[in-house]
């Protein structure tokens, strides 16, 4: 009985403590009205004409949005902020003289943790953690703030179990600075990319990697977030895949791509990241596959396509990247198989069809790509 008596007194003490902290509906004597005579705030009292004590604030449709304590109109102590749509708490924040100060937590509308840390006089300070909004509510990032800005080592994580690192590096005055590493999400600590930042901008040599095997994909010099100078990329085997040159972030000049065997796959020219002039594409045997010109990265003029034995397959005319104009198809012996006009990629008008000796077998008539007559 003596223990039960102590327990009752303990429960009563807790209740006595909580009532002034969170208030009670019976104590909310003051009400403030909004549109259509709805209550938008109710609280314990006013002091010198300012809200004082525990108050609850509502939306216009009477959903609780905030609750906490005022001291002469200034937010003090713990306040809670709710999502009116779900009723879930989205902030648990402390104030000192109407300024955020002390432990802080925020939540997604789903109720899952979003971030946690602390404020000192309105500025984020010390260690903070951020969380993904996924089903597992996995850790998204952790690091430190100083004076409201990210400073020092920060680690970002993939949205998977086990704190699989996504990125890691240092911040200086809220900007990435120094060496950073990015990782794949396979949990093997496989590096995706690495290189230096200078006050938030990529500067210096960056190296990018294949996932499996974790070999170099390409390395390039980056100045103020833009690729510059020579560029070479590699297959996972280490064989060269591409060669080119960057100017202000865009490929410029001769570009070459190779098969893993080392044979040329395609070659052409860029002007500040835009394909221009003649390009050639090859079969892995080295035989020409197709050739034609680009203007502003769009195919223009006559393009020729070849069989693997090197004989001409067909020629087609492009205008601003669309097939428009003459089309001619050939037999292996070089004789014309058929020819005609294309409009927006569709056959139009009369198309004579030849035999392998060059004689006309028939004439096909098309309208908007549909065969309407055979003569």
Number of strands: 31
Termini gap: 111 Å
What fraction of the residues are assigned to beta strands by DSSP?
Answer: over 45%
Sheet of most strands: 31 strands, antiparallel
Secondary structure tally, helices = 1
Task: Label the overall shape.
Answer: elongated
The helix content is: under 10%
> Overall mean pLDDT score?
92
C-alpha-based Rg, rounded: 35 Å
Output the keywords.
mainly beta, single chain, 375 residues, 31-stranded antiparallel β-sheet, 63% strand
Structure in a nutshell:
By secondary structure, the protein is mainly β.
Question: How is this structure best described in words?
Answer:
There is one protein chain. This protein is mainly β and 375 residues long. It has one helix spanning 2-22, and strands at 30-33, 39-47, 50-58, 64-71, 74-82, 89-96, 99-107, 113-120, 123-131, 139-146, 149-157, 165-172, 175-183, 191-198, 201-202, 204-209, 216-223, 226-234, 240-247, 250-251, 253-258, 264-271, 274-282, 288-295, 298-306, 312-319, 322-330, 336-343, 346-354, 360-367, 370-374. The chain has a 31-stranded antiparallel sheet that branches. A hairpin with a 2-residue loop joins strand 8 and strand 9. The radius of gyration is 35 Å and the shape is elongated.
């Amino acid at each position: 009985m003596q223990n039960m008596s102590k327990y009752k007194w303990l429960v009563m003490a807790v209740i006595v403590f909580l009532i002034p902290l969170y208030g009670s509906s019976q104590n909310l004597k003051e009400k403030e009205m909004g549109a259509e005579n709805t209550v938008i705030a109710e609280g314990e009292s006013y002091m010198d004409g300012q809200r004082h004590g525990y108050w609850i604030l509502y939306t216009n449709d009477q959903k609780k949005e905030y609750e906490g304590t005022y001291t002469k109109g200034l937010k003090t102590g713990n306040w809670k902020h709710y999502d009116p749509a779900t009723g879930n708490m989205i902030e648990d924040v402390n104030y000192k003289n109407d300024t955020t100060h002390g432990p802080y937590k925020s939540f997604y509308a789903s109720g899952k943790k979003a971030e946690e840390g602390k404020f000192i006089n309105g500025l984020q300070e010390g260690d903070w953690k951020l969380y993904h909004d996924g089903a597992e509510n996995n850790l998204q990032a952790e690091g430190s703030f100083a004076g409201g800005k990210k400073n020092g080592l920060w680690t970002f994580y993939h949205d998977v179990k086990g704190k699989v690192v996504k990125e890691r590096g240092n911040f200086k005055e809220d900007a990435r600075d120094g060496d950073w590493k990015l990782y794949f999400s396979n949990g093997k600590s496989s590096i995706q990319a690495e290189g230096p930042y200078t006050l938030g901008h990529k500067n210096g040599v960056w190296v990018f990697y294949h996932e499996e095997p974790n070999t170099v994909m390409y390395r390039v010099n980056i100045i103020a977030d833009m690729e510059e100078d020579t560029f070479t990329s590699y297959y996972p085997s280490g064989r060269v895949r591409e060669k080119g040159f960057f100017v202000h972030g865009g490929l410029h000049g001769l570009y070459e791509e190779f098969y893993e065997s080392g044979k040329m796959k395609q070659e052409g020219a860029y002007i500040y990241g835009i394909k221009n002039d003649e390009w050639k594409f090859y079969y892995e045997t080295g035989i020409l596959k197709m050739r034609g010109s680009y203007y502003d990265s769009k195919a223009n003029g006559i393009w020729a396509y070849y069989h693997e034995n090197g004989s001409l397959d067909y020629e087609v005319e492009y205008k601003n990247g669309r097939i428009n104009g003459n089309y001619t198809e050939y037999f292996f012996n070089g004789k014309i198989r058929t020819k005609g006009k294309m409009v927006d990629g569709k056959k139009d008008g009369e198309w004579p069809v030849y035999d392998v000796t060059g004689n006309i077998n028939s004439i096909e008539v098309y309208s908007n790509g549909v065969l309407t007559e055979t003569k």
